Amino acid sequence: MVRRTSSQCGVRGRRLAACLLVLLAPVAAGAAPLISEVFYDAVGSDNGLSFVELWGVAGTSLDGLVLDGVNGGDGSITPHLTLSGVIPADGLFVIADDAGDGATSVAGADLVVNFDFQNGPDSIVLRAAAQVLDAVGYGEFAPEEHFAGEGLPAIEGAPGTSLARRFANVDTGHNASDFVVLDVPTPGAAALAAVPEPASAALLAAGLAGLACGGRSLPARRGAARRRA
Ligand SMILES: [Ca+2]
Ligand SMILES: [Ca+2]
Ligand SMILES: [Ca+2]
Ligand SMILES: [Ca+2]
After folding, report:
1. Whole-prediction pTM value?
2. How does pLDDT run across 30-43, given as a tens digit for each residue?
3. Residue 204 CB partners (closer than 8 Å, separation 6+)
4. Helix 198-212 vs helix 218-228: angle between axes, to the nearest 10 degrees?
5. Torsions phi, psi for 15 (to 5 deg)
6. How many angstroms is it from 2 CA to the middle of ligand 4?
7. Nearest ligand, CA of residue 46?
8. Where are the domains of the chain?
9. Mean pLDDT of all residues in 119-132
10. DSSP secondary structure string, 172-211?
11. Cα 222 to ligand 4 centre (Å)
12. Residues lining ligand 4 (ion), CB within 5 A?
């Protein structure tokens, strides 16, 4: 058995703690809105049923932001939606498809516009002018196709299912791991990761890092050292 020295353990533990802090951290207050759920393929016609849900800090203006659909086949942009409105108190803003008469069947819509995002492989990108704020690509992309998401694409579910972030406020930049298929779409509702207090997040990461170095937490190992002394 190879024994790690305490200094090897310390370096390894600090690296792991830093990684865990990044992985566990929800998006910080003041950050740009995220695409938290997309529902682009209802059973049968999508008209008046599809939606894109955004998560953001309450009070954030969406005026002038753009949602683009990027065609996986040729990279063309359609639809191209200019947004307006403000993230409400619960942090979730629902952009719902207009059924053609100014109304929508999507519950809790915050903005009604006419659109039809395609089934994959495609991507949906949230922009502020040329700056990409968030993006999700979904479906199986051939090498020559155009993926405009982050990391690897999210998998597609059957018609009637949506793609949603595991936690609406957590974005690791990897669509495949951030998004899951929901059998029942949830416009305007989402699981949120608690924003940890900086001290408790650091303690959690340090404890987990300590476990990686011999299965004892850092305080436990300090205690053992004191008993030997
Ligand atoms: Ca459909
Ligand atoms: Ca429509
Ligand atoms: Ca992102
Ligand atoms: Ca939702």
Report:
1. 0.78
2. 689 999 999 999 99
3. 20, 24, 196
4. 60
5. -65, -45
6. 48
7. 1
8. 34-182, 196-229
9. 97
10. -S-HHHHEEEESS--TT---------HHHHHHHHHHHHHH
11. 45
12. 37, 53, 186, 190
Ligand 2 centroid vs 39 CA: distance in angstroms?
Answer: 13
CA–CA gap between residue 187 and residue 164 (Å, rounded): 10
Separation of CA 46 and ligand 1 centre (Å): 5
| Cα R_g (the chain), whole angstroms | 22
Taking the C-alpha atoms of residue 214 and residue 227, their distance in angstroms, rounded to an integer, is 18
Separation of alpha carbons 149 and 91, rounded Å: 23
Residue 10, φ and ψ in degrees, nearest 5:
-65, -45
78 Cα to the center of ligand 4, angstroms: 23
DSSP codes, 148-182: -SSSSPBPP--TT-EEEESSTT---S-HHHHEEEE
- Burial of 5 per CB tally in 10 Å (0-12, 13-18, 19+): exposed
Q: Which two tokens stand for residue 121?
A: 């492989």
Which of these CATH numbers, 2.40.170, 3.40.50, 2.60.40, 2.30.30, describes 34-182?
2.60.40
- Strand order across the 34-39 sheet: 111-113, 92-97, 51-55, 34-39, 162-165, 179-182
| Amino acid, res. 65 | L
Q: Which ligand is nearest to the CA of 150?
A: 3
Span 77-103, mean pLDDT?
97
